[in-house]
User: Fold this.
Amino acid sequence: MGSGKYNFAKPLIVVWTGCIFIFLYTPMVSVVLASFSKKRYFSFPVTNWTTLWYEKAFNSLSVRDLLFTSFSVAAVVTVFSVGLAFFGALAFARYDWKGRKLFQKIVLLPIFFPQAVLGLALLLWFSQLGIITSWTTAAFAHMIWIVPIVTLIISIQVYSFDPALEEAAVDLGATRLQTLWEVTIPILSPGLISGSVFAFLLSWGNFPLSLFTTGADQTVPEWLYAKMVSGYTPMVPTLGSLMMAGALVSLLVIYVAYTLFKIYRKRRFAS
Assistant:
């Protein structure tokens, strides 16, 4: 292209990206603004600002229980999902064995079930077995749907993994466990972190499966739905804003932990 011609591609990409961000995040900004309004129902622009609803939320024992239940479910789902998906991904994408294709189909099957149908099926199954539903059964239900997704995410990293690195470690005298800890996990760590983020967020905001499987316990999405259907209060956008803040804090914690792990490994190899 000549020097006198102007390239419109870059400005158009910037404008298009800005439009996407506005489309995606304007509803979230509206929720945050509504949480600071004195009015019972949200109207823009906000004329009367207040932090009353946040004070009530932080002082409410029921809100603490809701957040604690949601966090407990999401934390348990994240830990177990990543653990199961890690070994599932190795079997899914790393090794060639008889029955591998059938295993791949079985692993992916729960993704194609509507969550409401899956939640109802699990509720009937728990009732048949005499299991009292609680947040633990909700965590189990979330894992059935989330583990396949995390397995796919980690499998993407596994497909690019060179098996010769493990073979070289074994030839140098490393045990299988040492090879797993020193070679396999560090190389697959980006996939593990990505899977952790997806697992936590998918569980943190999950409503259909929680609705059928939490029993007497209640998560934040369930409470928000109940209040939106009947008995709306300004606590709804307030708790919604706290949920978004909790998700961001959790992402930050995962990122910091991953950064510290990388620093630790660099110092260890440097020494």
